[in-house]
Design goal:
Helix content: 25-40%
CATH class of one domain: Alpha Beta
CATH topology of one domain: Rossmann fold
Mean pLDDT: 97
Strand content: 15-25%
Largest sheet: 6 strands, mixed
CATH architecture of one domain: 3-Layer(aba) Sandwich
Low-confidence stretches: none
Strand order of the largest sheet: 4-5-13-10-11-12
Order of helices and strands: EEEHEHEHEHEHEHEHEHEHHEHHE
Structural class: alpha/beta
Shape: globular
Length: 388
């Protein structure tokens, strides 16, 4: 067991990991697990990974669940990194790769975070879990909660894609539809959780979803033979994957697995919901809530993210940036990617392909750079977005 404590990402206050925790008790910002990385380095090497299972649990020493505790798992992680030759050639980037998270259980990257978070919640004594979700997070939490024998309460905007709502219900979750956005769903949970006995599993409002998501960074490094790419394009709603990867990069450098080089990280958002893009270009350190948020890419429809300050720091430290893509372009380019690469990407992933074309045209990405796009889920969950 290498987990030491939880530390606030803003004020640095330490918290006890052995009790269920949400945000920092002092400043109400996200908590990060902290590990004894010197001890991890003695127990785990890059070479020892070669014989381990193909799942995110191969990185067990840098995950919070005690070694003697069985994880709640469907075999998440270990997704392929695919060379997108045809699309890359078309836009002038030959070294283009797609990390295809649609091949996770529940068909999205949300499986990573929920596998670790639900495992820890059960271990620490939670019996009822609640989360707001615009789609894939709800399905993932419902599935892992069912496997763990825990109650799941999912609050979703009424216009959430039907596949996500059905998925949650069919794996046993209690689904409440709200007239509003994911922020309204989160507010309803906050109002009721104490009386109902729910543990709040909202993005970055508990410490362990980010640990599952950080395995994206570990896998990316391992799949590229421990040389990080030049550029990462990441579709950004709550941003757990973005901040999780950055955490992973820092941990791997401390372990001596990678050097100090980091990818330029680009946050891709929808034109109709772009709080991080707006704050980045305004030079702000936090993002105001985005008014009248709307987009068919439901995973990007997060008008206010609790980890906004973390994302903005990463974008600037990495020399990256933030840009928007409109809904029509996302849907149009989905078919273009599908025809070129055989991947039916989610609109969120499609937004990154569209953004790549813009960044290349603007000279912000060079043709000889290695670029990785994260496709965070399957287009099959978004059938309402596409024509007959």
């Amino acid at each position: 067991m290498f987990l030491s404590h939880l530390r606030c990402t803003a004020c640095g206050l330490q918290h006890d990991w052995t009790a269920l925790q949400n945000l920092c008790t002092a400043c109400h910002k996200p908590l990060y697990p902290v590990y004894d990385l010197a001890a991890v380095g003695r127990a785990l090497t890059r070479e020892s990974l070669r014989t381990r299972e193909k799942s995110l649990w191969r990185y067990r020493e840098v995950l919070p669940l005690p070694s003697e505790v069985e994880p709640i798992t469907f075999g998440e992680g270990g997704t392929p990194l695919l060379h997108a030759r045809r699309f890359g050639d078309a836009v002038g980037v030959a070294d283009l790769w797609v990390k295809d998270e649609a091949q996770n259980p529940t068909q999205s990257f949300k499986a990573r975070g929920m596998a670790v978070a639900v495992s820890m919640a059960k271990h620490l004594g939670a019996t009822k879990l609640a989360a707001p979700s615009a789609g894939n997070a709800g399905g993932a939490m419902a599935a892992y909660a069912a496997r763990a024998g825990l109650e799941a309460h999912v609050f979703m905007p009424r216009d959430t894609p039907r596949a996500n709502i059905i998925e949650c219900r069919e794996v046993g979750a209690h689904v409440t539809l709200i007239d509003g956005l994911i922020t309204d769903c989160g507010a309803e949970i906050a109002k009721r959780k104490a009386a109902e006995g729910w543990f709040d599993m909202s993005t970055l409002k508990e410490p362990y979803r980010v640990e599952g998501k950080k395995t994206l960074g570990y896998e990316l490094a391992e799949q590229l033979d421990w040389q990080l790419p030049d550029v990462v394009l990441y579709p950004t709603g709550g941003g757990t994957g973005l901040v999780g990867m950055w955490k992973a990069f820092d941990e791997m450098e401390t372990l001596g697995w990678i050097g100090p080089k980091r990818p330029r990280m680009f946050s891709i958002q929808a034109t109709g919901c772009a709080p991080i893009v707006r704050a980045f270009h305004a030079g702000e350190t936090a993002a105001e809530e985005f008014p009248n948020a709307h987009t068919v890419a439901s995973g990007l429809r997060v008008p206010k993210a609790v980890g906004d300050f973390l994302m903005l720091d990463i974008l600037r430290l990495s020399g990256g940036g933030a840009l928007t893509v409109d809904d029509d372009e996302m849907i149009r380019i989905t078919r273009e990617v599908g025809a070129a690469e055989g991947l039916f990407v989610a609109p969120e992933g499609a937004a990154c392909f569209a953004a790549l074309r813009s960044l290349v045209a603007d000279g912000k990405i060079k043709g000889d750079e290695r670029v990785v796009i994260f496709n965070t889920g399957s287009g099959i969950k978004y059938l309402e977005c596409y024509g007959e």
